[in-house]
TrEMBL record:
It comes from Gossypium hirsutum. The gene is LOC107904276. This is Protein CANDIDATE G-PROTEIN COUPLED RECEPTOR 7. The lineage of its organism: Eukaryota, Viridiplantae, Streptophyta, Embryophyta, Tracheophyta. The keyword Amino-acid biosynthesis does not apply. InterPro entries: CAND6-7_N, GOST_TM, GPR107/GPR108-like. The keyword Signal applies. Residues 33-161 form the CAND6/7 N-terminal domain.
């Protein structure tokens, strides 16, 4: 038991790291159609992709047009074009461009040009492609050395590796993902079956919260099978064929239900008490709309890609909302801990309340560790992984989720002899003394 755990001291340093990690771009690995409208950025990132020995990039650019932002400036088409650069080179290019306003990326040796707009006219079409000879992680970028001109265009991109003569549209480090997600689907399906059996065997003790927990498992299970099918279709065809929509839908319900379950368990609803207080209802009224907004932003981020002008802003908004949800869910757990301490002074059952208090303190710590690990630690590890091992990120995240689910479902299962709530009569005096000692200490959960 952590008697002096301080939420504020542990939380705020990690918040800083969380925001720093928001600048890491996500990998986009499917066939993309992107519209650029009146954009004057000097560099626009379109793709980030891990290539093996036989990689290929193809670009089709149509409906190209431009407009001057400054009068009496001559347009030079060759000042615009697409190039690729490995990740270290792109970082160097980006840093140099920040310190030199006359910097032209298309003239730098680190940029491998795929196509320039040398002979383009209004509404012209151009195609460029290149084979990747050096396996590495590359960025596909549009460079504009005349930012006084706004450019509009439709860009179709295909990035893939060749494996045994077949196109593989998944990034080199994501090949294991279809099998991984399908394995997780089987695990959660078995998890759900075990939960149904447990609830059936303890039917008199099944509460509403246990039914909601079962529904959470169903949503998680369906999300995993959709993720598997999504990855399979992207790998083979470059597009998810609608599985991404199903993935977003079930992910939406899973996210809402997970935070709802954490809050309801944290309040002790239908386990310690059959009702919610007004302040606990207010927490739900805050978290559920935040989860709805978070899922909408998540869809926007994944469907627009990094070429969108406000893509980084959407990422930062997503992280901000996610942090807000993580903060809010702590309050009901802390309230339950304080209520149990107060109840110990009134009802004459110190041992029973001590065990419940232990359970909720452990639940509080586990929730913090789970949220920190999946939101911060996993992202930090992913930032330093070689692109061949990016599959480890979902392995770590889903592994932590599975352990977290196991903890919740085991400790709050519908059973009479919960291991955390079994009380030996001989422990009553010791429990009373320990409860008295805890009450005399400064309350680390005081808000």
């Amino acid at each position: 038991m952590m008697n002096h755990f301080n939420l504020s001291k542990a939380f705020y340093p990690l918040l800083l790291l969380f925001f720093l990690l928001s600048n890491i771009p996500l990998s986009i690995s499917e066939i993309k159609n992107t519209w650029i409208l009146d954009d004057y950025r000097s560099m626009i990132l379109f793709e980030n992709f891990g290539f093996g020995k036989h990689g290929h990039i193809s670009i089709w650019v149509t409906n190209v047009s431009w407009m001057s932002r400054v009068e009496n400036v001559k347009f030079n088409p060759s000042s615009m074009g697409f190039f690729i650069a490995d990740v270290p080179s792109f970082r160097r290019i980006w840093n140099e461009s920040l310190h030199d306003k006359t910097y032209c990326v298309l003239s730098r040796k680190h940029a491998e040009i795929i196509l320039r707009f040398d002979h383009l006219e209004q509404d012209s079409t151009y195609r460029g492609s290149t084979d990747i000879d050096e396996p590495d992680e590359y960025n596909l970028v549009f460079g504009n050395c005349q930012p006084e001109f706004k450019v509009s265009m439709h860009v179709h991109t295909e990035t893939y590796n060749l494996r045994e003569g077949e196109k593989d549209f998944l990034s080199a480090g994501k090949a294991p993902l279809p099998k991984l997600y399908f394995l997780l689907f089987l695990i959660y399906a078995a998890f759900f079956i075990v939960w149904v059996i447990a609830c059936k065997n303890q039917r008199p003790r099944v509460e509403k919260i246990h039914l909601i927990m079962g529904a959470l498992l169903i949503c998680k299970c369906l999300k995993m099978i959709c993720a598997s099918e999504d990855a399979i279709y992207v790998q083979k065809t470059g597009t998810p064929h609608g599985w991404d929509v199903a993935f977003y839908v079930f992910g939406f319900f899973k996210g809402i239900m997970l935070f709802t379950v954490i809050i309801l368990i944290g309040t002790g609803w239908s386990i310690l008490k059959p009702y919610l207080q007004e302040r606990e209802k207010q927490v739900l009224k805050v978290v559920i709309p935040l989860q709805v907004l978070e899922n909408i932003v998540y869809v926007i981020i994944n469907e627009t890609g990094p070429a969108t002008r406000d893509w980084l802003t959407w990422n930062q908004l997503f992280l901000l909302i996610d942090i807000a949800c993580c903060c809010v869910v702590f309050f009901p757990i802390i309230w339950s801990i304080r209520s149990l301490k107060e109840a110990s002074k009134r009802d004459g059952k110190p041992a029973k309340n001590l065990e419940k208090l232990t359970l909720f303190k452990q639940f509080y710590i586990v929730v913090i560790v789970y949220l920190y690990f999946t939101r911060i630690v996993v992202s930090a590890i992913g930032a330093f992984l070689n692109y061949w091992f990016v599959w480890l990120v979902p392995v770590l995240e889903q592994g932590a989720s599975l352990v977290f689910y196991g903890f919740i479902f085991y400790n709050f299962q519908p059973t009479e002899t919960n291991p955390y709530l079994v009380i030996d009569d001989e422990e009553e005096e010791n429990a009373a003394a320990q409860m008295e000692e805890n009450n005399d200490d400064d309350d680390p959960f005081e808000l």
